Amino acid sequence: MAKKPYRIGVDLGGTNIKVGIVDEQDRILAKKSVKTRAERPWQEVAKDIAELAMRLLAELKIDISECEKMGVGSPGMIDHINGVVVFAGNFNWDDIPLVTELRRYFSLPITLANDANCAALGETVAGAGKGARHVVLITLGTGVGGGVVADGILQQGGAAGGMELGHTLLMLDGEECTCGRRGCFEAYASANALARQGRRAAKTDSKSIMHEMCKGDLSNMNGAIPFKAAQKGDKTAQRVVDDYIRYLGEGLINCINVWRPEKVLLGGGISNEGAPLINPLNEYVRPRCFAGERGFVPHIEIAALGNDAGIIGAAAL
Amino acid sequence: MAKKPYRIGVDLGGTNIKVGIVDEQDRILAKKSVKTRAERPWQEVAKDIAELAMRLLAELKIDISECEKMGVGSPGMIDHINGVVVFAGNFNWDDIPLVTELRRYFSLPITLANDANCAALGETVAGAGKGARHVVLITLGTGVGGGVVADGILQQGGAAGGMELGHTLLMLDGEECTCGRRGCFEAYASANALARQGRRAAKTDSKSIMHEMCKGDLSNMNGAIPFKAAQKGDKTAQRVVDDYIRYLGEGLINCINVWRPEKVLLGGGISNEGAPLINPLNEYVRPRCFAGERGFVPHIEIAALGNDAGIIGAAAL
């Protein structure tokens, strides 16, 4: 039997379709991307995935028979057992049998999973969680996503809609969440939530430099501005950052009390804030986990692979 | 090699030490218990476990060589990897190497786990979750405990202090919890929490029949009284029950959004309320999970094994 040292990883995003060829050491040998243009028929998206993969293999002079499998990470609610995107709001997709369609192009095992779950697996096999068997990744982007590797196994839930770590409560009857519930972790810890918190605070303080940073229009507020303004000494912005760290910290304490992972990793746009985010966050979380200092409290770190986590994780499914 | 058809299950509780001999069909062939008397040296508790097991084996005419393994469920924070009770508040135990001590009596594999985790495994192999590979059990007793079986594997967390499902948030800055945090699921959904909710409500309504049921002293309030009073038409009690179902429901929605189990089971004292608890609870939860009716929503049911879940689950570790 021929050796199969390569795997194909696909990161299907709202903006780009990214495909990479990954080797046995979980390194990306080459990658390519095209625009997703999700408004077109979904079969064309599947065709683009296949074409990107075939072009990469040709350029690397790798035969498809040398590929062990293909993994695909997709946003939305995934039926990982049947390889179906149950729905993806951004794509306007409903019950898309993506794996069945991809099998028209490739005769190798194909697996579909949620994109945040793929990123968690990628960081565990090749990123900031390498060497650990228990990792929780939380992505702080437009929403709050996440993934869990427990005892080396990617947790995906028993049916579609599991592992929605962003849609667990922080505050009953709290802020409205995109999911229809109120008070979800996502409604407090996403980049959008932080921008909203920044806008509200700036409205109460006409002297805050956040106004200037928003060019006088608070609709320009984003998740980076409160951090930048706080570093320049703006007290109102500092309060926004402090509150945000508390919200994020409380959600991470929930994750630690449930999984006690070796590492908690942060990805997504807000994780780019680095030390001014991570240091006070670790200080906040350490004494507040169940059993406090008597229990093992993992260190919270920034994820390492950036956009490559999705490809590497998908290839590792 | 001799066939090993039997296993020893131990349920170490605050009141009683219960030991059972379990067969290959996860049935308890015989069981015995003695008082725990946790105030004595812990080695005596271990000795009692050993003696109960040996008496049971003798009565059943089973040789220890026919036993595959022993499992022990203990309250408190468990280091399941090293077989240590890190601490158990009720027992005043700290870093008790229970497995090492039990190995002095038995030369067979011995595993230690949290008691609520054992109950979840017991219900999955032989109780209301039988046949399912994904089960969440929540126990509504003095506190709120729980356990998760995901893809057939009991989840115990990466280190001691994991799977504390009762110590995830329902309400940031909410009710004080026994763990030192505020707003935990346990602080809203335990039997103690329900009694507190009942007391508070009765104080606002001198005509509520809850006063009579408490014999004029609200310190006699317990988790059963609001349910009983509501069934007799007491409107104040009905509001307490409605609120409680909402709190419990929100915590269960969190569990469903994370694990999407095939079944959610309720154990512990409050679960004895049966239909008046379970029916409105299912109605509350069904439309409120992530993705609502588009996702799979498990049925919430009462656990089936009662006190035997701990023994059967421990034997199945």
Observed structural traits:
homodimer; 5-stranded mixed beta sheet; 10 helices; alpha/beta; 317 residues; globular
Rounded radius of gyration of chain A (Å): 20 Å
Oligomer: homodimer
Total number of helical segments of chain A? 10
Provide the low-confidence segments of chain A as ranges: none
SSE sequence of chain A, one letter per element = EEEHEEEEHEHEEEHHHHHEHEH
The helicity of chain A comes to 25-40%
Strand content of chain A: 15-25%
Main sheet record of chain A:
5 strands, mixed
For the termini of chain A, the CA-CA separation is 22 Å
Which class best fits the helix and strand makeup of chain A? alpha/beta
Structure, described:
With 317 residues, the first copy, chain A, is α/β, with parallel strands linked by helices. Chain A contains ten helices and 13 strands. In chain A, strands 3-2-1-4-8 form a five-stranded mixed beta sheet, with helices on both faces. In chain A, strand 5 (77-79) and strand 6 form a beta hairpin. Chain A is globular and about 65 Å long. The mean pLDDT of chain A is 96. At the A-B interface, helix 8 of A face helix 8 of B.
